[in-house]
Amino acid sequence: MAGNILKASNSTPARQRRVLVTGVTRGLGRAMVDEFIRLGHVLIGCGRNAKVIGELKTSFGAPHRFDAVDVADDAAVQAWALEVIESHGVPDLLLNNAALINRNAALWRVPAAEFDAVIDVNIKGVANVIRHFVPAMVKAKRGIIVNFSSGWGRATDAEVAPYCATKWAIEGLSRALAQELPPGMAAVPLNPGIIDTEMLRGAFGDAAGSYPTAQQWVKQAVPFLLGIGPKDNGRPLTVG
Ligand SMILES: NC(=O)c1ccc[n+]([C@@H]2O[C@H](COP(=O)([O-])OP(=O)(O)OC[C@H]3O[C@@H](n4cnc5c(N)ncnc54)[C@H](OP(=O)(O)O)[C@@H]3O)[C@@H](O)[C@H]2O)c1
To answer: Is the CB of residue 32 less than 8 Å from the CB of residue 56?
Structure first.
């Protein structure tokens, strides 16, 4: 297994990590796949877009693993976690990256179904992944959990109230979780910065083009993520 990884990568990591990332089919998640693998780590990823998941499987074989999983579906996450822990063991770094944003609108104009979807993915999806992966991490007394928050998890703007509500929730959820973990582990909320992805285009339109691309962002973000340790438990972090 190590032979495959070292052949496929440009450098040998000081310590190879099993990195689990939700939402790898585009944006920050997709760019993190390339960078973690380039640095020699083992990547386990999910997203809903089965076509892109199939392409990732073709591009990156074992020991990497990609599955079409909707994090809002608790039973699907449970089945995925059982399989992943069986095949790969406990993740060293669990990145709850998958999220949705509402279409820009005043809160009272956001349809109930759209509000529900944002809550279901951004809060319940994170809780589902934690529910099914973290017990094995706690048992092993190791592992880092990073829940992607936002500048809109610490401040607010008009027309993104549903998204703000979820990211403020992620800040509280992560800090409470941190108080439940045994020594040697960490849970943190992470503001990744502002990056030109499909999500940002949804909120900012063409103005998103003045921000770094996901491919630029990972050069700073992935080393930052790999540097998070038990010393950071419960600290709200920001890339950059
Ligand atoms: N871009 C920014 O400037 C920015 C700023 C602050 C915070 N963030 C946060 O950073 C993270 C990544 O954002 P991004 O900009 O990369 O967003 P993005 O381009 O919209 O990508 C989101 C990813 O999440 C996946 N996803 C959505 N719902 C899912 C579900 N139910 N189950 C599994 N995967 C799901 C999507 O894939 P599928 O559609 O295939 O499921 C996609 O791969 C998010 O948590 C976001 O809130 C981003």
So the answer is: no
